[in-house]
Every structure is written in C-alpha cells, then in structure tokens.
Specification:
Chain lengths: ~325, ~575
Amino acid sequence: MELFDNHKKLFTTATLLFLLLTLFVAILPAINNQQRNRPLPNAKMLTEAEMKGKAIYISNGCVACHTQQVRNVDMDKIWGSRPSIAADYAAIHRTDLWRNTATLMGTERTGPDLTDIGTRQPGKEWNLVHLYNPRIVVKESIMPAYPWLFTIKSAPSDSDVVVNVPAAYLKSKEGKLVATKEALYLLAYLQSLKQTKLPEGNPIPEFLYKKAIKQADNNQGQQPELDGKALYTASCQSCHQENGEGLPGAFPALKGSPVVMSNNLELYVDIIMNGYDARPEFGIMSPIGTNLEWTEKEVAAIINYERTSWGNDGKKVTPDEIKKIMDLLKLKTTAQ
Amino acid sequence: MNESTMSNPGIIITIILLLLPILLGIVIVILKVMGTIRQAKDQQQLEDADKLAEYLGNLSKEEFDKQIVKRKAALDFQLSHQELSGKMPPEDEKGLLHINQPPGLPIVAAKKKALARPHIDPKLSKLIIWYFLSATAWLLFGTTIGEYLGIKFVAPDADHISWLSFGRLRPVHTNSVFWGWASLGMLGLGYYIIPRVSNTKLANLNYGWYTLGLINFAVLIGSICLMAGINNGGGEYREYIWPVMLMFAIGIVLTLINFIQTIARRTTKEIYISNWYIVASIIFAIVITIVAYVPNWQNGLGETIIQGYYMHQGVGMWFMLFTLGIVYYILPQQLNKPIYSYSLGILAFWTQILFYTLIGTHHFVFSSIPWWLQTVAIVGSAGMVIPVIAGTTNFILTFKGAWYKISDSYTLPFFLVGILFYFTGSLQGTAEAFRSANLIWHFTDFTVAHSHLTMYGIICFFLWAGIYAILPRLTGKEAPQITVGAHFWLALIGLLFYTIPLMYGSTLKGLLWMDNKPFIEGVVLMAPYWLWRAIGGSLMWLSHLFFAYNIYQMVATRKEVDIQETAIRKLTDPVTPIQPIT
C-alpha cells in the first residue's frame, strides 16, 4: 500500500492519530477542568509558612508514599468526611518557574492518606517527635526518619521549640533536641491539611461500594458493640501507645490513669470529644472525637477498651450512659 | 478471601495468568512421573535378565563354548572404513570441509556462536557500543539504588542522610532505569536496526553521539537534582525539572531527525515494520514530553489528567513501542526465519496507538477527575487485549517449527521470557483497571509488582536479548555462556521472588483496607512480603553484575591470536612486529 511505503505519509498519519487522541483524552479535558473548577468559597489559602512547608514536603518526595485524595469508595471514608472533589485542587497553581503544579494526589499509599491529617492528628509534639523518628511513637512504622530537620542545642533559648525524645534516639549526644525552621514549616503545612466543608445546601458526594451490613444478630433489637481495640489502634495508639503507657514528656499514660479509672465520666468523655490541655508537661490533645464525628457508640467502645486493658479494671459503660453525657456536653458548649 | 472477591473478574484474570507458569510446572511433574514409570519397567527387565542367566548356567560346557566363539567372531567383524573412499589421500577441491576442534569437557551446554557481520561501519559500531556501555552503567546505578530502596522497607533506619532518604531516592531509581538504562539500550539497538533494515548508511553519525551525550548528562544532572531535593512537583516519571528533561528531549529529537533521514535514503521499497514502531515511538515520546511539561493546561486537576496520560504513555508509547520494534527485527533474525505475519504486526501497531493513548487516567480511578474520563481509560485498557494478543501470537507463531533452536541459543530464552511477560504483564494491567479489581489493588504494592513484571519482565528481557544478539556481531567477541546463563536465571528467578509475594501480600492488604482495619495493620502484614521483595531484588541486582561482566567480555577482552590471520599479516607486512589483535 502506498501509505505504508511512503515514510512521510506513514509517520504523519501515525502522529496525527496520536495527536488527535491526545487532544481528546488529555489536553482538552485538562483545559476544561482547569477553567471550570473553582476553589470552594470557604477554602483557606496556604500561608507563607505553610507554602514553605509544602516545598519541603515536595522536595523530600513525601508523595512517593502519601496520597492526598479521598476516593469516593467506602474504604476511604477513614481518610476524610467526604470524597475529594475537583474544587479541592482548583486553587493549586504552578509552583514556580522551575517546578510544575503539585496537587500531590499520589499513586501509592504506603503511608496513610494526608488529605485531612490536620484534623486527624494536628498535635505539634506528636508530629515533631514523629518526624524526628517515626518509630519513637509508632514502632511498626517504616517511614524514613528526618533528623536533619532538627538540631541539638546545649542551651536552647526560649524561642526554640524543644522536642522531647527518649535518650536512646539522641545517639548519646548531649543537649536538647530543637526543631529547625524547616521542621516547623513542614509542621505548619501538615496542620493546614484539612478538608474544607462543603457549603450548606450542597449535596455531599457519596462513598461507593458500601459493605452490606449484616442483619443476623439484630433479632433482639441490640446494636452489636463496636471493636474498641481497632478504634484505639487507629486513633489513639500513635500517642498513648499500644501498651497504654504513653511517652514520658509527650503523651500521658492511660494505664492506671486517674481519668480513665475514676467515676467522673464527664471529664473522660469531654477529653475524648473536645481535647485537653490542662497539663503543661504533656502535649495538647486534639478534639479527636469531634473531628472524627464519633457517636456514643465509638466513645463507649473506646472507654470500655481502655478501662479493661493493660491491667486496668474499671467499670464498663453503655452507649446510653455516654449519650446522656454527650448531650450534656453539647449543651454546655453551646451555652458558652 | 470471600466469595465475592473470588468472582471479581480482575482477580480471576490475574490468577489465570499466574497459573500459566504453574501449569508448566505440572507438565514437568508429569514428565518426572513418566520417568519413574520407565524405571519400574527397567526393574522388570532386570528380573528377566536374572532368568536368562539361570538358563545359561544350565547349558553344557562344549555347547556353550561353541556358541560363544561363533558369536564373538560375528560381533567383532568390522569394516575397513575405506570401502567407499579407497586408499588415495583426500583433497578438498571445492572448499567444503570445515573441521571443528573437539571442545573440552563442557560445564554448560554449548550454544551456537553469533555470526560475524563484516559489513558494519566500525564508526557506527563504536557508537552503538558506547550506547550499550552507558546503558549498562545506568542499569547498575539505577538498580543499586532500587535494591537499597527495597532494603529500606525492611530496615527503615539504614541511614539518616537527607540525600539518601526514601522519598528522594525513589525517583532517582525510576528515572535512571527509565531514561538512563532502558532508553539508551533501546536507542543503541535502534542505531543498529534502522540503517540495517533500510539497507543504507546512517545519515549522521554525529547526531548519534550528541544524543548519547545529552541523555547521559540529563540523567546525571537529574539524579543529582533529585537527591538534592530539587524536583518537578511530584508527578511520577516527570520528577526531573524541565531544563533537565529538555536535554533529554533535544537528544531524542536529534535521533528522530537522524532516523527519518536514514529511512528516507533507504534502498528498499518497503519500510520494514521495525522502523514503524521505532520511529513512531520517538515521535510519541517527544509529543508526550511536550504535553507533560508545557504549563498551560496544568493547574488544579489539569495536572492530574496530564500526569495520568504522561506516565502511561511513557511506558506504553516510548518503551513498549520501541522495544516491539526491536523484537520485530531481532527475533526473526535470531530464528533465521521471517516474522509469522506482517499484517498482525500492522494491526498491533494501529490498535496500540488507538487504545493505549486512552488509558492513562486509569491510574486515577475513583479520584476526582471526571468519571467519564476514568471510564474511557478502563475501556481503553480492555481494548489493549487486541494489540497484546496480536503481538504475542505473532511472536509465538514465528517460533513455530523453530522451537528446537531455543536450546541452541542464548538469546532466544530472553526473548521467550519477554514474550511471556508481554502477554501476562500487559493483560494484568487490563485486569487492574477494572473498577472492582482497582478497589482492592489501587495504592498498594500491587502496582509496584506490576510495573516490575512489565518494565523488567518485558522491556529488560527484550533489551538483553537484543544486546546479546547484536554486540558480538560488532566486536566479534562473545560472553562466556556460563555467565550469560547466570544472568538469565538470576534475573528470572529474582523477578518471580520479587513480584509474586508482593502481589499476594498487597491483595491481602487491599482486603484489609476494605474491612476498615487500622492502617498500621496493613504495614505489619506486608513485612514478610517486603522481605521477599528485597530477596528477589537482590537476585535481580546480582544478575546485573553478571550482565555487566558479560558486556565487559564482549567489548574489552583481547582476542586470542588467530594463527591464520597472523600468519598472513606476517607474509604481507614482515616489518611491523606482530601484536595480538585487540
């Protein structure tokens, strides 16, 4: 055939076909998305410090293991309160002359998704310790350590952010571990990663592929109790540790803790739902329950797990008891 | 795994693909069983022999002697071996006789020697050899990094140096094996194939050297930038910032001009199919690089859509298409028969362009890019069945009637493995794109296993096959068979150790995620599979040391003194002292 024996015609045809397809599956959809999508009206722009933190996130290739996309499938609902939508990325523009746009959506999830990490784990102490060496707080973690974001000072000044880590991790160097500017920028960026709430009245996109809920045990009208250990592992363990002993100088122990064991359930539930910052020797606890939108069932399961583990032998609670306390706490917060 | 998982089409397809090698194992077991049956038969015959001995023992002495003497005389009869030739001394008037020296006791089965090609311009040879040397250096560099990254999954505190931290090194590994090793290896083979099948000289030797220099420089600078923390913003395979990638792009533009000019001067009427694939792949690589680096359509989700397009066209249109072109030339050449069907090759060419271009966004299934675009990508992935089956059928049928040559050749086993993974690896990609399968495997190490099955199983094995076939023709020297064999088996076994545990473990991890188990449980679960990956990776890495040694043997070793050649030189030029030819 003439087409196949003439190199000009052959290669021009192949190129045109490829260009045409490229136009329709890549360039036009890309242009269309970049023009049509706008950031959500209540979306926060990154501050200067957070931008610098993002640059550090980019240059260390964090995207190799951490995604920043909540997919619209049921298994991803632990990473955010709603699936990510195009508007979430619309404000991201070219980084600078040298570097392309960094949506940092990622293609591997060797580590957790970070779309909403600022809500899930905003603690400054925890994040800095974890960056210095993740295995101090999560012993199974395989994340790299970032010791070069920290320095050791024998006499830190008041403005220095001192990070308490176990002596074994300081490699027998004298002095205090101090976070560098870079570490604090990166921290600021991680804390800024929060899903923006959709404006009122907008339908929230659904999570697909929901698992069918088993109806078998519901004959007596009782709800099956949630797995307190799994909830603890997912949301509490990284600070309070698997053995419930916390980390001295950073996170308090729950083993034998007066808060856990006492009969003052109100304080206990309040801490879980609304956070705690009453003890200067420890880091601030974030309002984890509120952030993750826990109901009385989750809170009861966690309290029961903490009261019956590591040698604790506290009284078990029922979701109904907790519901009353939670309602009471809600009244208080609205009254304030 | 529950029932619904097992009825998932993606998983079924993958299991069938994995079963293929296992079925091969079953065939081997059957052969073994047949051997055992034969042994039992031997046992039976031994018993018969006992009976015969008993009968002979019962014969009388004279009768026995008479029979024995007669039989011995019959058995000892021999021809004089000169019944046909007579007693005159032989003379080879037509030059038909070649006397081979008997080989020593062999450790490995003797394979056929490569044929010398006397008509290659030594200058072109030199260029191609330097492409291969550079490619090999980048293979060693890139996979040493890869090996170290694999170790980091098992020992995350192996070092605390910023330049060597995981996030920075990972793109160094991927980019140096992509743009350094595989691209230079392919281009080197391209520089051999294009002028050869056009039956003309290469248009411009200098352009070849410029391309080589530019690409080497780009990968060197790119690797240093990445380790220093300078990257393009996180899209996979385009981590090099644009000035670095520009050098690479200029390099392949020069080669494109060079190849098209060479083809324009061809002395054949047709453009052999290899040249279709090779030239098209270079044009497409230039197009995708431009699309990926021009900033005008990359804000917000535009970046993600382009990223999906780019990362998959990079593998499918640059590496795969180019490598197929190489196979279309070297496989028939090594089998010494024409390609089974030229038409199938043409069908595969056009369908590959049609379907492959569509499938990029299947890396972002369930993300916030438009649902219709995800669906187009999934449909395109299914369409890839056509070019893959066409290509595989074509290659396998080219082997028809020549299967026996595999045992005689050290290049054909590489081709066979490449073809096998071309089939299984590519169809696995189709299976992974289905939404139901993607649900389990996306974001897990399954993707890593898949990319190694394809980039390593297909591209690397085809490149090795090509280099082992071509390099001896250029230098006249061959690598020791035993180290070629070591390279082949270590690479193949290493790849299987690398990928199979990783695929199994990541399936379990995906199911665990779907069960909403705490994330850290998935990390703990993967630990043994990551260890297996490191072991497989070590074997692969070791095989590359053998490959590098083989390259050294093919390029740098001294030729043995050729008695005839030296004698002739002595006669024609008695003044110069005789040196062994190097």
